[in-house]
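Before relying on records like the one below, remember that each one covers exactly one chain. Contacts with other chains, cofactors or solvent are not represented anywhere in the record.
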Amino acid sequence: MGVNIAVNVQSSIRIKASKTLYFDPWQIEGQPLDGDYVFVTHEHYDHFSPEDIRKVVKPDGYLIIPESMAHLTGDITTIPESHIVKVRPGEKREVARLMVETYPAYNQGKPFHIRRNGWMGYVVTIDANKYYVAGDTDPVPEIRDIKCDVAFLPIGGTYTMDATAAARLTTMIHPRVVIPTHYGSVVGSPVDGDFFQGLLPRDIRCELLL
């Protein structure tokens, strides 16, 4: 089965493989209701949108969310409590036959994403491929040796790492494919993707989906 990857806006990601995964769904058009798993990285409005989660999650789908956000899930009444999975950074666990690893996502020297909030990025393994969705983060020490096939990294700066820092991190973790996110909308310029791509080693493929 082929894989279809789309970035809707900002960090709103859809991966269609043998199962359909959403990360931080936001500004979703229509009501696809095709998400087997929906992941949330943190509670900012452009990443945690109960309205958009309700649009994408299947009736029997799963929501994976930071434990620190457990009190915010009451509005998502379409998901049974048993299908809301609360996680902390630094875990590796199976969620309904899907292997999920969690990594810290936070800023260094900026107040927007504080480490103690317990917000995170995810490495998800599906169909023998590892996908890393970083969330809103700087290139913090805990993520510099992540192993993945495809990495989704924020590049817009201000609230996250910028394109230069993201390119350095990409070189460190060396995925087969990197897809830049979190630019050209709330923060960053549409040309940031081209700049980021120009900084990468030639053996790492960059796909610009925004």
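The radius of gyration is 16 Å.
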